[in-house]
Amino acid sequence: SMCRKNGGKQCAIAVSYFNQCIGYVAGANWPFIRTDSSIEAAESKSLERCQRQDTDCKAVYSSCSLQERIQ
Fold first, then answer.
1. What's the pTM?
2. The pLDDT of residue 42
3. Which of 12, 19, 45, 54 has the fewest CB atoms within 10 Å around its CB?
């Protein structure tokens, strides 16, 4: 996991997602995680929330898990 790769010792799943995108922003005191149908919207919502409620906001991770067609 990304947490362990970065030296984390007490890693835990914060959110799971599928068929959507995620934006994870870390503030000085709290993490801000939002999901949306586009990666841009998920990132933007996370950053906006962090800037309203925290300081030193930095984008940490964003990705999409889009649906797959199975035949």
1. 0.76
2. 96
3. 12
